[in-house]
Structure formats: structure tokens, C-alpha cells
């Protein structure tokens, strides 16, 4: 590497001078040894000794992938592009506005270069169907949808094409785990690949039953139980309403993270919850009033009362609408 050799006491002054004149290379580290420093340059500089020195290259990865799109998309297109994306293990899932879909390959390549992940998919649909999956299209990298995602000490294996998983709920899962007491008997009515049960079981001495209607989700949940070596965790592939009749005991806590449809199962939850038990209830809403009313109405039908002990906006889903969490203690009137 062509460098300017200068005494160490003059190194900083010469560095500033070369930077101002745009003669200094910014992709290599300055080297200092003994009495001299070596500054990488892009052309010969008069008045200085020029030498060839091996230098360490700098990691000049862009701060965001929009920088990689400069020259490919207009400033307006870059502004329109949603630069937030979901990173799940070695997979990235992007949401690309309709007006930029023709540039999806360019955007995918930029994302691949920036994130250094293996596969870049774009969302082709919202989450749909009883098994809660979304359509994805590979736009860069390898078509390898199976990955392992790490979260709060847990390892979660999944296939992003076969199951739904949101890394954006990591903080919420940790919050619920931190509120659990040892010895609880817990039911996750819509467990998916088991992120709530696995995170809770990694950090608490509890019994957990996870139920999901998606057999692929249960397949990975079962694998995640083994992968994380957690005990007293059971995975069941079934409809939560149908399987509820077979439970021989009630639960101290019921997790209901199916925000689009959880309210349809509140009657089941009220029948299965222990006195003074906790329901962690989730729904899509612009606030908490609707969810609180649904909990109260369902409890009254079972001659129970509801104490709302916590509310939280988990994440924004659309303008004016949130994925909200309501923690409720259920008490019997008997």
C-alpha cells in the first residue's frame, strides 16, 4: 500500500491535511510503529517520503442498506423504501412497497450485502389461514428458509415458509418470562414454534403446555424443546378449543398471543384458568378498552371478575392500530 511516512509527532497534522485535500485513503488503517506513522494515500504527495507498507483494511460497511442503493434508486424511492426488516437467524424478511417491486432484486442484493445473512425474502402476503403463515418470495441469496434464531439464551429453529414467527416480540416474551413465578402451570394456547414456552422454561422452573393447530409449528416446537434441553414442556398439535376438554387440571397462567382471533377463545381460557390465575391476552386494537371489555364480559359469563394488572403496546401494526398486551388476574366470585 502506497503511504506517506511521517514522524509520529506530525502524524495527526499530516492526516488532517491529506484528508482535507482528499488524498488520504479511508479504507485502510493508519499504521504507527517506533518513531514513524504511515498514512495510506491514493496518489503521490509532493514534499513527503512515499513508501510501500502493508496496512490493515477498514470495515467500511454502510450504516444502513439505503446507502447501498444510492445510484440505483432515486432519493424519493429510497425515502419510500421501508428500511426496517425482520432478521430471523440467517434469514431477512423485507416489506417492499408496491411501487418499488420492480426494483426488488436490487433491494434484495443491497440487503444481502449489508446484513451478511444467507437468504433475503420479501413478503408477498399478510399472515393468513388457520395455520398463520405468509407467502414469501426469495429476492437474494440462497433459498434456505430453515434457520436458527437466538433470543434471550434460547435457540429457536424454524422454517420461515411454514410457520409464522416475529422477532419483534422478543422484548415481550422476556417481559412475560420475568413475571412468571416458579411452580406455575402454564398453557400457551397458540404457541407456534414455542418461543414463549422455551424462553419461559429456560429461565423458570415451571410446567408448560403449548398448543398449536399448525403441525409444522409443533414439529419445530418439539425440536426446540430438545435443542434447548428444557424440561416439563409439552407440545400438542390441536385446536385449542377442542383439546381444552381433555385437560385434567387448570392453569395458573394462560398465554393468548393470537391477536387477530384470541377473543374467540376467551370463554375457553376462563374455564381453564385457576382462581387468581393470570391471562396474558393480545389483540390488534387502537387502545386497551376493547380488550379489557372482552375479558370482563367473558369472565362474567363464568361468574368471575377481572383485575387488569398491566397493559402494553407491543408494536405498531398500521397507522392508529397496535398489537396490544393486557395482563389480567382472574378471580372467582364464589
What can you tell me about this protein's structure?
The structure is a single chain. By secondary structure, this protein is α/β, with parallel strands linked by helices. It has three domains: 2-52, Alpha-Beta Plaits, CATH 3.30.70; 67-144, Met-10+ protein-like domains (GMP Synthetase, Chain A, domain 3, 2-Layer Sandwich), CATH 3.30.300.110; 165-332, Vaccinia Virus protein VP39 (Rossmann fold), CATH 3.40.50. The chain is built from nine helices and 17 strands. The chain has a seven-stranded mixed beta sheet. It has a four-stranded antiparallel beta sheet with strand order 2-3-1-4, covered by helices on one side. A hairpin with a 2-residue loop joins strand 5 and strand 6 (91-94). Helix 4 (170-179) crosses helix 5. It is elongated and about 95 Å long. The mean pLDDT is 91.
Question: Which properties best describe this structure?
Answer:
334 residues, alpha/beta, Alpha-Beta Plaits, GMP Synthetase, Chain A, domain 3, Rossmann fold, 3 domains, seven-stranded mixed β-sheet, four-stranded antiparallel β-sheet
SSE inventory with pairings:
Blueprint: E1 2-7, H1 11-20, E2 31-33, E3 36-40, E4 49-52, H2 75-80, E5 86-88, E6 91-94, H3 104-115, E7 119-123, E8 136-141, E9 146-151, E10 154-159, H4 170-179, E11 185-188, H5 195-203, E12 207-212, H6 215-228, E13 233-237, H7 240-243, E14 251-256, H8 266-272, E15 273-285, H9 289-301, E16 304-318, E17 321-332
Parallel strand pairs: 6-7, 11-12, 11-14, 12-13, 14-15
Antiparallel strand pairs: 1-3, 1-4, 2-3, 5-6, 7-8, 9-10, 15-17, 16-17
Helix pairs in contact: 4-5
